[in-house]
Amino acid sequence: GAVVSQHPSRVICKSGTSVKIECRSLDFQATTMFWYRQFPKQSLMLMATSNEGSKATYEQGVEKDKFLINHASLTLSTLTVTSAHPEDSSFYICSAKTGLDGYTFGSGTRLTVV
Amino acid sequence: AQSVTQPDIHITVSEGASLELRCNYSYGATPYLFWYVQSPGQGLQLLLKYFSGDTLVQGIKGFEAEFKRSQSSFNLRKPSVHWSDAAEYFCAVGPAQTGANNLFFGTGTRLTVIP
């Protein structure tokens, strides 16, 4: 079945630095990828939708200059958290749409900003 | 507007007992419905999904769910819970149409299984 590989699984960075999270579709082409953020013991909140070759669409309240999304190829989408602060610490999950009715999720990235 | 409600934040059941996790949705059209399971620090694994047809859907790990349009519900059930079922369960709804549309998730139900 469709597999999305998300890397890294855990990252700790210093406040003020940037962190890049990658999501790769391993055996299919992902025209559309979704980026979610999950706070402890809460649900997944959609941050943005990325489409290959075009600008990402951000949800209301999500700073596009802080959370840079690039979807330059059909198999790779990246989320860069720029100038990270402790409040950006969270669990980030990507998801790719597979066909008309399928959604495959990455294994998530635990970001800790110290 | 679309929404998904999971009324139970936390459920505790004994191993071997039956389980039902509730999910109610609000959607303007006939939705696609999903149940996912998430172990701590992990991504989401699809348990089952409903698009059309038979309203009783069988999934992996012995789970099933029943779509009840009149009640706008899609409850997840398992006849006999195993200790390995302890996890967070999310109900989600998506648009029954083509296009690049995301899923909307409920707030999740945490399942604890006691010996």
What is the tally of beta strands of chain A? 11
Please give the radius of gyration of chain B in angstroms: 14 Å
Describe the oligomeric state of these chains in a short phrase.
heterodimer
- Biggest β-sheet of chain A, characterized? 7 strands, mixed
Largest sheet of chain B: 6 strands, mixed
Model regions low in confidence, pLDDT < 50 over at least 5 residues of chain B: none
Query: Topology as H/E string of chain A?
Result: EEEEEEEEEEE
The helix content of chain A, as a percent range, equals under 10%
**What's the rounded overall pLDDT mean of chain B?**
90
Overall shape of chain B: globular
- The secondary structure category of chain B is mainly beta
The secondary structure category of chain A is mainly beta
Mean of pLDDT of chain A: 92
Protein chains sharing the most extensive interface: A-B, 23 and 24 residues
Low-pLDDT segments, ≥5 res of chain A: none
The number of E-state strands of chain B comes to: 12
Please write the string of helix (H) and strand (E) elements of chain B.
EEEEEEEEEEEE
Q: Could you please describe the fold and organization of this structure?
A:
The complex is a heterodimer of chains A (114) and B (115). Chain A has 114 residues and is an all-beta fold. Helix content of chain A is 0%, strand content 55%. Chain A contains no helices and 11 strands. In chain A, strands 2, 4, 5, 6, 9, 10 and 11 form a 7-stranded mixed β-sheet that branches. Chain A is globular, with a radius of gyration of 13 Å. Chain B is an all-beta fold and 115 residues long. In chain B, strands 2, 5, 6, 10, 11 and 12 form a 6-stranded mixed β-sheet that branches. Chain B is globular and about 40 Å long. The model of chain B has no long low-confidence stretch (mean pLDDT 90). Chain A binds chain B through residues 6, 31-32, 34, 41-44, 46, 49, 51, 91, 93, 95, 97, 100-101, 103, 105-108, 110, and chain B through 32, 34, 36, 41-46, 49, 51, 90, 94, 98, 100-108, 110.
